[in-house]
Amino acid sequence: MGQSMFIVWRESVEALLVIGILHAWLRQQPGAGNALRMLWAGVAAGLGLAAALGWGVLQAGDWLAGSGGEWFQCAMLLVASLLILHMVGWMHQHGRTLKTSLQNSAAEKLSQGSGFGLLLLAMLAVGREGSETVVFLYGIGNQQAGMDLTRFVIGGVLGFVLALLSYAALQAGSRYFSWRRFFQVSEVMLLLLGGALLMAALDRFSGQLMGMDVPEVLYTVFGDPLWDTSTLLDDGSALGGTVAGLTGYRAMPSLAAAVILGLYWLAAWAWLKPRPQVQFAARPA
C-alpha cells in the first residue's frame, strides 16, 4: 500500500506540474481558447496512452505462464528499477530548465499554428509520466492478490489524492516548502525504491537459476548468504519486510546481491554528484 501510494503520488505531482506550467502559460496568450482545448485533449490522450500500455503489460503477463512468466516478471522489475534511476537522473539534470523548455516548445507549436502539435506535446509529457507509473506499479504489485491487492489499489488512489493536495500546497506555500526540496526528498525515496525493485528482480533471477543445470560456483554466488543480520532485523518479519520492500534490505544477502546493489548506488552517486562549473578564463585582446 505504501509503495503504490508513493509511486502514484510522485508521478502524479510531476504530471500536474507539467500540466500546470502549460496551462498557466497558455492562459496568458491572446485567443488561447483553442490552445487550451488542445492541451486538455493532449492530457486525455496521454492518459489513454498510459492505460493502453498498462493493458498491454497485463495481457503479456497473463499470456506468459510458468518459467516464461517468471522471466517476464524479472525483466519488468529490472526495467522499473533502471527506469527509476534514469528518471531521477534526468530530473536532477533538467528539472531547473523544465519550465522554460516546456514553454519554449509550446510557443513554437503556437507560432506554427499547430494545435495538433500542442496536443502531441501534452500527450507525450503526460503519457511519459503515466507510462512510468504503469511500469513501476506492475513491477511492485504483479504478485498482489486478495486483500493485499485491495490495499495496493487503495494506496494508489490515496497517492493521487495526496498528489492533488501536495500540488496545491506547493503552489500556495512555496516559501515554506519549495519544489526543489520536494524533488530532493522524493529523489532519495525513489532511489531506495529502485534498489528494492532491483533486489526483487535478482530474487526472481536467482530462483530461476537454482532450478537450472549451471556450474556450482553460480549457486554459491547467487545462493549462499554473505552475512546474517537477521537477529538485528529479519526481512521475514513485518518490520523487516517493510524495510526490505522500500529499500532492498536483505538480512542474508548473497555475494551477487551485495555487488549488484553496491553498483546500483555507485551509478546513482556518479550520475547525481555535483558537476564542477566550467570556468572560462578571460583572454587578452
Task: Describe the overall structure.
- There is one protein chain.
- The protein has helices at 2-27, 33-63, 66-94, 98-111, 115-141, 146-172, 179-210, 216-223, 238-247, 255-272.
- It is mostly helical.
- The chain has one domain.
- Helix 3 (66-94) packs across helix 5.
- It starts with a helix and ends in a 13-residue tail after the last helix.
- It comes from Stutzerimonas stutzeri.
- One of its GO terms (molecular function) is ferrous iron transmembrane transporter activity.
- Belongs to the oxidase-dependent Fe transporter (OFeT) (TC 9.A.10.1) family.
- Keywords: Membrane, Transmembrane, Transmembrane helix.
Kindly name the structural category. mainly alpha
Residue-averaged pLDDT: 81
Helices and strands, in order, run as HHHHHHHHHH
Number of domains: 1
Helix fraction, binned, reads over 70%
Q: Which stretches are poorly predicted, pLDDT < 50 over at least 5 residues?
A: none
User: What kind of sheet is the major sheet?
Assistant: none
What gyration radius follows from the Cα positions, in whole Å?
A: 22 Å
Tally of strands? 0
What overall geometry do the principal axes of the alpha carbons give?
Answer: elongated
Strand residue content? under 5%
**SS summary, helix count:** 10
- CA(first)-CA(last) distance: 65 Å
Protein name: FTR1 family iron permease
Main location: membrane
Membrane topology: Multi-pass membrane protein
Keywords: Membrane, Transmembrane, Transmembrane helix
Supply database-style keywords.
single chain, 0% strand, FTR1/Fip1/EfeU, mainly alpha, 285 residues, membrane, 10 helices, elongated, transmembrane
